Amino acid sequence: MVRLNKEASKKIFQENNERSPLNTVDLHGLYVTEAEFYFKRTVEEDWDRTQSLRVIVGRGNHSDGNTPKIKPAIQVLGEKLGMTVDVDPGNDGCLVVTFK
Q1: Which domains does the chain have, with CATH numbers?
Q2: In 3-state terms, what secondary structure has residue 90?
Q3: Coiled coil located at which positions (predicted)?
């Protein structure tokens, strides 16, 4: 089951991001731990630190109680990693992440 869950999250991440611009990572549709894994991987491996990173986290519409779960987790993780994390003023389902 663990292996199948990993394969499923990998497929969801790949499909969400195959057409995304270079400075965007789409995490919606993943579980929180999976979203944190892919966020860290993106920041460590693929992100040009001279730019901001747009992180699509979703609004929580499909979560229990319509409460976002990925957004607060990524906000905390980004800040722990020394980044500034702001909610995109034009879309509350997105975060804008920059190095301090």
Answers
A1: 2-99 (3.30.1370.110)
A2: coil
A3: none
Cα distances (angstroms) measured from residue 10 to each of 34, 76, 88, 94: 9, 23, 26, 20
DSSP annotation of 6: H
Residues 6+ apart with CB under 8 A from 24: 17, 53, 54, 55, 56
Q: Which residue has the tokens 């109680």?
A: 65
Q: Please, which contacts does 45-52 make with residues 24 or more away whose CB atoms are closer than 8 Å?
A: 47/23, 48/22, 48/23, 49/99, 51/23, 52/23, 52/96, 52/97, 52/98
Q: What tens digit of pLDDT does each residue of 68-92 get? A: 899 999 999 999 999 999 999 999 9
Q: Whole-prediction pTM value? A: 0.89
Neighbours of 90 (CB within 10 A): 7
